[in-house]
Every structure is written in structure tokens, then in C-alpha cells.
Amino acid sequence: MVAIRRKGPFSPAVEEELxxxxxxxxxxxxxxPPSSPLLCSLLSSLLSTAEHRPVFLPSLRQRxxxxxxxxxxxxxxxxxxxxxxxxxxxxxxxxxxxxFGGNHKVEDACEMYARAANMFKMAKNWxxxxxxxxxxxxxxxxxxxxxxxxxxxxxAGNAYKKADPQGENCCLTNTHIAxxxxxxxxxxxxxxxxxxxxxxLVDIEKAIxxxxxxxxxxxxxxxxxxxxxxxxxxGHYSAQLEQYQKAIEIYEQVAMNTMDNxxxxxxxxxxxxxxxxxxxxxxxxxxxxxxxxxxEMFPAFSDxxxxxxxxxxxxxxxxxxxxxxxxxxxxxxxxxRLDQWLTTMLLRIKKTIQGDAGDLK
Length: 361
What we know:
Blueprint: H1 12-18, H2 21-31, H3 37-51, H4 60-93, H5 95-99, H6 102-122, H7 126-142, H8 146-163, H9 168-179, H10 183-199, H11 204-220, H12 224-240, H13 244-258, H14 268-282, H15 284-297, H16 305-318, H17 322-335, H18 340-350
Family: Belongs to the SNAP family.
Pfam families: SNAP (PF14938)
InterPro entries: NSF_attach, TPR-like_helical_dom_sf
């Protein structure tokens, strides 16, 4: 075997590279560890233990406790910010404060109230968040920042809504938004509240009131399309609550608003159709007179499928023929699918036919 003389303190890897090829295989074999059965058994045991070692995760109670501690910390931080903001507001109102940067102090206080409100939101203390946003909004009004004031009042309203959707604070924030001159923002806020009443609280009368208020605000901003959408909601729910005269007036109003608009006039026949159905439920003669009036007002209504259906229904009702009534409805439904509202109104009309079973099948 040829001896290789090392020329320096080389590492084993480098030393292996320096070996002639015929000696590298012998060198690698010399470095392999002995494959003892005892060693293999120990390694296998260690690996098995590692695979089955239990992993300890925090329990649900521990996580809830940690979350509660985090929320408490956020609330404390928010209350400190509120206290600092209160001090700045008081300082700005003093004689010296007014002379030396009073407005800057108020602006700083606005920012602190907003930060505190967001901290309360993170802690899910919605009522406190609403109060903090209101404080910021009032200071923005004091600084004549109407847009910022309205935005803060909207944030306050959203927070109050989560705390108590039926509370008076929601209505107060809407009033403040309107007073700040932001009628569109106020209208959107009323729509949001109306949606809560119709979907979550299922108080349709209060939903109607908020949609009406939103429509009034949109009219004040000349946003007639948005106002009409709100009015259609009012008409829809008024008819469901059997307030037919109110529904008729709304559908007629919206139809007249749209029939002169080239882009929207196609929808006018739908609104006249719905008004006619409301008339029909109240009195058959009222329905006939209303249909004649609508044809004169909007000639395109005369050729509509809706009017043809109405005439068939009137004829079936006069003859007290429930089968003809049902057949006319089925023919219409095969082309234009009836929604839940139309189905409800047609069933109410059909029930006035003597001996009717009370369905459209």
C-alpha cells in the first residue's frame, strides 16, 4: 500500500479528494461505522419514541382565558386613550389652550378617540366603541370637517347596531349624519338598519320606516333611482302587510317616475301590474278602473303579458271560475316565473272566488 504524506491539516473530506483513485474506496470503507445489532436496536427504539411522543396543545379554556386577557388589555388601553383625549379637549377650551394651538389639541383628541374606538372594537365592546366614535364625530363637527364627522357617525352607528340594533343610539347617529349634510351617507345607513330589521329581527314595520327615511334622503340629493329602489321595498312590504292603498300609491309613483326614462320605462309595466293586483285584492271594480287608467297613462302596458293575464283573471273572477284562474296563472308562469310576492298576491285574489281550495295548482 502506497503511503500518502499529508502536507497540512486537511479535513477528512479534503484528504479523501487528495487520495489517488485506487485508494479512495479503501479509505471510505475504513470510515464506515460498525453496523452493530445493539446500535441498530437503540436507534430504532429512539425513533419509535419520538414518533409517539404526545404533543401538548393549549385547551379551549386556556385559549378563551388568553383571549379574555387580551380583550381586557385592549379595553384598558382604549380607556387610557379616552382619558388622554378628554384632557386635550379640556385643555383646548381653556384660555391659554385657545391661544396656543387649541385646534391642534382638538385634532389630536379626534385621533385618540378614533384609536380608542378601534381598540374597543377589537375587544368587542361595541357600545363603548360607538361612544368613542361619537366623541370623534362631534369634534370633527366642531372643526367643520363634515365628511369626517359623517364617517365617524356611520362608524358609531355600525357599532351601536351590533350592541343593540333596536336602541335609540342608532337613530341618533342617523340624525347627526343628516345634520352634517351628508344625506347620501345617512340614507345608506338607514338602508343598513332596514336590512337588519327585515332579515335578522324580522320587524317589517320598522324596516319599512327606515326604507322610507332612506328614500326621503335620496330625494333630497336628487338620487331618484336610489330613492325608487327604497320605495319599491316599502311597496313590497306594505302589500305583504295588507296595507294595499299605501302599496298602490308607491307603485304608481315609481311607475310614473320610470315610464319617461328611456332606460327604465320597460320596468313601468311591472309596477303598474303590481298596483293592479293590489287593487284587485281590495275590489274587482277598482282593478278594472285602475287598469284602464294605466293603459291611458302608459300605452306600452296595453300590449304586455301582464295586462293580458290581468284581463283573464278578471274574467275568471267574474265567472267565479277557479280552474280558469289557475290555468291563466300557469300559462303566465311557464314564460315568466312568478316570485314569492306575486304568488302570495295571486293566492289572496283566488281565495275570494267561492268554493276555492286556496292554491294555484
